[in-house]
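User: My collaborator sent over this chain with a note saying "see what the structure looks like." That's all I know about it. Can you take a look?
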Amino acid sequence: MFIPLVPADGTDYDHVRSGLASRPASPRGVVVGTGGDGRAIAGANETMSGGALANDDNTAASAAAILDRLGRRSIVLVGMMGVGKSSVGRRLAARLSIPFVDADTEIEKAAGMSVADIFARHGEADFRSGEARVIARLLEGGPQVLSTGGGAFMNPNTRDAIRAKGISIWLNADFELLMRRISKRKNERPLLQTADPAETLRRLLAERAPIYALADLTVQSRDVSHEAIVADVMSALGPLLQSTATPQREAGT
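Assistant: Without extra context I'll predict from the sequence alone. Here is the result:
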């Protein structure tokens, strides 16, 4: 595979650490709240989740509890292009005082070219192969917030690796919101370089949604601030992590 596991300049990833054991299987598809259309979502009550972050002491205590239960696992954001994984991920990592890692950025470092150039020169199949290898390596670097590309979670081997070493969160969004967001940067999306980008997006969303739904947690992205979505994520992570003991705790360490 043409994409190496280290950046093109030969240096290693500063944030990669080894020695993380697999965690036990956790309940899949945990969701919080119910949207107006009946869909189960996290963040149905924005006022409550915003209030949870209003007090700095409560926020710090919430972050500390999440980190204690997270152990050395990664929080892995999955979902469609344009849903806000990178923007939400950076803010979530800052809240938790842990590193943020963007898988696409690391792939570009490893390959020495942009994602769009990788698609153009080598095709999607080669890109997906390299993507899976880089994500598997990055997962050794927890605790961290890891943002993945829209197609990464479709790979069953990548899903298994995330299940073993992370907590997966699907940032979901409806078609209209996604289309509004990606229309501003449509030329940067290799899969949307088609005669009908809107139809292509609809097809991808329909194909991927059932797989995204296998994530540990689903959080509904809405036309609100990224901070509000971060609040939703943090409010939902606490209860989820209570049901998933870290390997260190199981071993009595």
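A starting point for your reply to your collaborator: The first helix runs from residue 46 to 52.
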